[in-house]
Amino acid sequence: MDRKSGARSVRTADPDDRGEREINPTEANVVRRIFRDYLSGQSSRTIAMTLNREGISGPQGKEWGPSTIHGNPKRGTGILNNELYIGRLVWNRLRYMKDPDTGKRVSRPNSESEWVVQEVPDLRIVDQDLWDAVKKRQRSLSFDTTATGSNPMNDRRRPKHLFAGLIKCGCCGGGYSLISKDLLGCAASRNKGNAITV
Question: Which terminus in the chain has less CB density within 10 A, N or C?
């Protein structure tokens, strides 16, 4: 399976049949562990660094990053928001289009009325109490990122800098970011915990 979903496709002899899904026990254990660790108070960064340190491969065989774990709750992305873990397959959450200015493919959320949902209780790997507790913690840690919101964090957001996104680490090729007021550092080392630091 090329994604860390906790389930895998079962191939059949029929080339037109995509097959059924079944739980991948190894991946399911990693998913449950992530939910438990997050609920115990660990940050998504700490969880990602620990998994990388232990040599547990992430989605598509890549390293874990914080966003792989916390994702975007409104878009249903990230390990902590994947409803397949509670036995629900959801399609058509997003639509993709080309940005006319940049030519890049961008995603836009569809309204919930456009979603296609299928209940698949045989694929549930996270019990409802654990799922609900994680959702509650996510809500308690979320804040409004819009400039017009009343959240006091908005006036502390970092401004964009002239060379933002251009500086790369000479050891791993990862991007550099501000890690304190006057210090740049390797984002891969800071977020994934396995890059060489200089």
Answer: C
